[in-house]
Structures are given as C-alpha cells and as structure tokens.
Design brief:
Number of strands: 4
Number of domains: 1
Shape: globular
Helix content: over 70%
CATH class: Mainly Alpha
Oligomer: single chain
Radius of gyration: 21 Å
Strand content: under 5%
CATH topology: A middle domain of Talin 1
Distance between the termini: 41 Å
CATH architecture: Up-down Bundle
Largest sheet: 2 strands, antiparallel
C-alpha cells in the first residue's frame, strides 16, 4: 500500500513538474514572440521604406502604404497563423481586442500625457470608416461565420478608404524612417523582418493557446487581451511618444488608421484566405463594445473638440472594467 502511495505521489510530482515547465516555456514563447513581432515590424518597415524611396516613391506615398502596412504586419501575421491553424477565435479576438484597446487603453494613456485635439480627417474619414467596418463585422459574424464574399466586402471598404486618404493629400498617421539603407541592406532588412515576424507570430499563437488551455480560459479571452495588447505595442509606443512631443494628430491618426487596417485589411484578408466560423460571442458582445468605444471617442472629439485627461481616465477605467468582464466570462 505504501509502495503504491509512493508511486502515485511520484507520478503527481512528475505531472506538476512537467506542467510547470511547459507553462514557463509557453510564457517564454509569448514574450519572445511579442519581442520578435515588434522588432520584425521595425526591420520590415525600414527595409521596405528604403526600397520604396530608392524606387522613386514620395515620402507621403511611402508613409500611407509601406509604413502603414508594415506597422499592421504583427496583427496580420498573428491572425493568418491563427486562422490557418484553426485558432479562429485568437485571430478575431486579436483584431477586435486590438481595436478596443487602441481607443480605450492607448488613447486613454496618451491623453494623460497631453490632450488630444480633434482633426478634420479623423472625424470625417478615419472614425466613420472604422465604425462602418466594425458594424459590418458584427453583422457578418452574427450567424457564427464569415463568408469569402463578406470578407471581400470589407476589403472593398478598405480600398475606398485608401483612395480617400490619397485624395485628401495625407493623413499624418505615421512617420517615414529618416535613414535610407543601401540596396543590399534594404533587401536584407525586408527578409529578416519578414522571417522574424513569421517566427514571432508562430511563437505567440502557440504560447498563448497553451496558456489559455492551461488556465481553463477560452482562446477568445487570450486573443482579446494578451495577444491584442501585445500586437498593439507598436501603436502604444508611437502614440505615447507622439503625445509627449506634442504631435497629437499622429497619436490620434495612428490609432484610428490602425483600427481601419485591422478590420479592413488584417481580418478581411484572413477570411479571404480561409473563410469559416466566427464566434457569435465575439460578434454579439465584443464587436459592440468596439463600436461603443468608437462612438465614445467620436462623441468626445465632436462635442469637446478633444480627448483630455478626464476622458483619458474614463477610457482607462472603462477598459479595466471590460477586461474584468472578459475574465469573468472566461
């Protein structure tokens, strides 16, 4: 009897040890994956921007295309990897969670540094298009799936947005890197950045999914929180630095432009590649939260003309309540 008890105790210890080691490895994978996504995006943007400038594109065109697409690369790679590996809730949660955190967390934090005034472009184009795309995702996903035709409709709205951005002569959403690399170094930076993004996305998705299973949490919860905030780190850094420098149009434009890219480019492209299920919970609960966050931002900008410290604190409190609700929901 004692021998059996000893054997059982040994097996439990081995299981606990193995579980602990795997959990630590998953956390390490998530941390390395996030770091790789941020670094890979920087290398990709610098290399691709240098190539575009050497090919004769203007800085404006580079900023609105190469840099904008490059800074959305983390969300795009994570969503594609998640969809192609059957982790759809991680992909959709990543996009919706990123958009909600972009407004409530990132703009809320930036507003504490400096008040963020409204811009004509944000109120007339960026914010309405972001609201339209979020509403379409909510409607398309209400029945628990998104077809390729619906994803193409999102891409069509995004294409119209890009045409409007170019026609208005610039948006100021992003900065073009000042240094231009040599041709070989430009190609090398693009290749290295792409490879780093792929590795980072794979590590982040695998680590996040394991942690979700280990904690008994849903993949949607991990996508809406850990993955979403992680892939939004470039936007957070950009907005905080811009607010500190007084470049408030970049802080607001960076967030709103990122939201449009996340829905009209990242999520749409993922479902064009692999149309299929979309969790009704995400469409019926989390998409409406993103809609309300966008409406709240629009109301603050339209009625008060700015997002001040008071609104910033309110946004952060609402985001904390939302994360608490997600943890409660599981």
């Amino acid at each position: 009897m004692q021998a059996r008890t000893r054997v059982a105790g040994t097996e439990v210890c081995r299981y606990v040890l193995a579980f602990g080691v795997l959990t630590v490895l998953a956390v390490v994978a998530v941390v390395i994956g996030l770091g790789a996504l941020v670094k890979g995006a920087v290398w990709l943007v610098v290399g691709a921007s240098s190539l575009a400038l050497r090919c004769g594109l203007t800085p404006l065109a580079v900023g609105l295309t190469v840099v904008a697409f490059g800074t959305s690369a983390p969300e795009l790679l994570v969503s594609l990897v998640a969809v192609l590996t059957g982790k759809v809730d991680v992909a959709v949660g990543n996009v919706l969670g990123s958009n909600t955190s972009n407004i409530l967390l990132i703009l809320g934090a930036a507003a504490l540094v400096r008040g963020l005034p409204a811009t004509r472009g944000a109120l007339r184009l960026d914010l309405p298009i972001g609201l339209l795309l979020t509403g379409l995702v909510m409607v398309f996903g209400w029945d628990g799936a998104m077809a390729r035709g619906e994803a193409l409709a999102l891409l069509g709205v995004f294409a119209a947005f890009m045409v409007a951005v170019f026609s208005r002569g610039g948006a100021g959403e992003c900065d073009v890197p000042s240094r231009v690399l040599t041709l070989p170094r430009s190609f090398g930076s693009v290749l290295l950045g792409t490879a780093t993004l792929l590795v980072g996305a794979e590590l982040l998705v695998r680590g996040a999914v394991y942690l979700a299973e280990a904690m008994g949490a849903s993949e949607a919860l991990i996508g809406l929180t850990l993955v979403a905030v992680g892939t939004s780190l470039p936007e957070l850094a950009t907005s905080l630095v811009a607010a500190r420098r007084g470049e408030t149009d970049i802080a607001v434009g960076n967030v709103l432009g990122s939201n449009v890219f996340n829905l009209g480019w990242v999520l749409a492209l993922a479902y064009v590649v692999a149309p299929g299920p979309l969790s009704p919970v995400l469409a019926r609960q989390d998409a409406p939260v993103s809609v309300l966050a966008t409406v709240g931002l629009g109301a603050a900008l339209a009625l008060r003309g700015r997002v001040g410290r008071r609104e910033g604190v309110l946004f952060l409190l609402i985001y904390a309540c939302y994360v608490g609700f997600l943890v409660w929901r599981g």
